[in-house]
Design a protein that fits this description.
InterPro entries: MFS_trans_sf, Proton-linked_MCT. The chain is 68% helix and 0% strand. By secondary structure, it is mainly α. The chain has 2 domains: 121 residues, no CATH class; 58 residues, no CATH class. It is flat.
């Protein structure tokens, strides 16, 4: 907020992380198609290039909406934002990476013109509902999570340490709830558990 000036608030900045996570879910079907048609190494190398380009572009941002375009998740109040993004980039490029998991069911249709998506999966109501709910989850769930410390300090009047504690509490509840939801999904079905908790 200090870097981009008064028009920038916690609400505007929280969308950066939310959009980043949403892009992961939205891009997943296309990534499966690309891996199937071009192989894991090519897609992984392309992904590294895209992430690198995004971080470098984000380091030159002069207003918060530039971060929406680059979809960067980096920044801190204590370190210069530009330096922080470049440090994250350097860390990503220098750390050893484990091989990606083997792709699961493909969404491809063979075509001499190149890869294409098989939209027939969207005829399945269960698949369509899970696809929509997963994307809505990424867009709306993360905004309150990212705003929790700011809300606790600026609206409720708690000290910053208590505001930070709120994230710990929410994350701890998330760990327990994931286990509970997993058991309920095994017992009553994934779609039913998703609908119940969404």
């Amino acid at each position: 907020m200090e870097t981009f000036g008064p028009p920038t608030g916690a609400k505007e900045l929280s969308w950066v992380g939310s959009l980043s996570c949403a892009c992961i879910f939205v891009a997943a079907p296309a990534i499966v198609v690309l891996i199937t048609n071009f192989g894991t190494s090519t897609v992984l190398a392309s992904g590294v290039l895209c992430v690198t380009t995004g971080f470098v572009a984000a380091s030159f941002a002069t207003t918060y909406w530039h971060l929406y375009i680059t979809v960067a998740v980096a920044g801190t109040e204590r370190v210069d934002v530009d330096t922080d993004r470049r440090l994250v980039l350097a860390s990503e490029l220098s750390s050893p990476q484990s091989p990606p998991p083997t792709p699961t069911p493909t969404l491809t249709t063979a075509s001499p013109a190149g890869p294409s998506l098989d939209f027939s999966l969207f005829k399945n109501l269960h698949y369509t509902l899970i696809f929509i709910s997963t994307n809505l989850f990424a867009l709306v769930y993360l905004v309150p999570i990212l705003l929790t410390p700011t809300y606790a300090t600026s609206v409720v009047g708690l000290p910053p340490s208590k505001g930070a504690l709120m994230i710990t509490i929410v994350s701890s509840v998330g760990i327990v709830s994931r286990i509970v939801i997993g058991h309920l999904a095994d017992r009553y079905g994934t779609l039913n558990a998703t609908i119940l908790f969404m």
